[in-house]
Amino acid sequence: MSTAEPVIVARDVYKVFVARGERRRRRAFLALHNVNLAIPRGRFVSFVGPSGCGKSTLLNMIAGLVRPTEGEIRYKHAPVTAVNTDVGYITQDDNLLPWRTLRENVELALEFRGVALVARRELSARYIQMVGLDGFEHHYPHELSGGMRKRAALIRTLIYDPDVILMDEPFGPLDAQTRVILQDELLKLWEGSGKTVVFVTHDLVEATALSDEIVLFSRAPGTIKQVYDVPLGRPRDVFRILAHPNFPAFFDRLWRDLKEEIMDVELGVS
Ligand SMILES: Nc1ncnc2c1ncn2[C@@H]1O[C@H](COP(=O)(O)OP(=O)(O)OP(=O)(O)O)[C@@H](O)[C@H]1O
Ligand SMILES: [Mg+2]
């Protein structure tokens, strides 16, 4: 485990959602329980766990969009009690604005921050070029491929230089080749930046390839089952991660622990 100072802390966090059930009766639903976690500054940390175990809910809490029912989320030593505009958040859906071009989408946060047009153009051109999207500046989101939209969502967040970035399955719906290329691009942008990344994925190879630490959640109602230090050095070659000598044993252990959670759900074992 890292000894760096924690930038995000979850302390005894519980989340109960109240939703409408049959005949519109209100039904309390426990989504997360007893979550305790410290994410050190500058680390790349992934959340993995069965669908519905509360990964996105925890990201939403860090971003201040959802409040814990009990317990506390602390961000840079202060409790999160309102929308946390300090973090960059790439949500499960890429959320590009369909009426704005690629360049206008990428510049959105800079516009909100009052950055002058010339500086905005210069910066967006640099980021667009960095991820190979030059030539597509004036395309609208529906004129871009899935991989291009994910790249746009990534640089739209990186451009305002948040030092903590939350990413919820950012490469989820992409084909295998595009995914690995984007993983490589992400690591190149991240390495040496000092930024803290919290990354949600269902792909254990992706989590292993990218992360310093992996947080495994139990099946719903979610809690943290285990935190692993990934035993692979840096820099990483994501294209050859399966060939790393430490990969097979680590992956087997991770998969075995996750499988217990998934199989119990499928078999109805509690
Ligand atoms: N706003 C909400 N109101 C009611 N229930 C909610 C709300 N948000 C999430 N939930 C419930 O909380 C549980 C956890 O949801 P969450 O989206 O955090 O899971 P997840 O781990 O991100 O799943 P996935 O891997 O499928 O994205 C789910 O059962 C979901 O239905
Ligand atoms: Mg989710």
Task: Give a brief description.
The protein is α/β, with parallel strands linked by helices and 270 residues long.
What fold name goes in the CATH topology slot of the domain at 6-87 and 162-267? Rossmann fold
Biggest sheet overview:
6 strands, mixed
Portion in beta strands: 15-25%
CATH architecture label name of the domain at 6-87 and 162-267: 3-Layer(aba) Sandwich
Cα Rg: 19 Å
Low-confidence stretches are none
Structural class: alpha/beta
The tally of beta strands, per DSSP, is 10
Output the number of helix runs.
8
Cofactors, ions, other ligands: adenosine-5'-triphosphate, magnesium ion
Mean pLDDT: 92
Gap between N and C termini, in Å? Answer: 30 Å
Order of helices and strands: EEEHEEEHHHHEHEHEEH
Shape: globular
Q: CATH superfamily name of the domain at 6-87 and 162-267?
A: P-loop containing nucleotide triphosphate hydrolases
CATH class wording of the domain at 6-87 and 162-267: Alpha Beta
Spatial order of the strands in the main sheet?
6-7-8-3-9-10
| Helix coverage percent | 25-40%
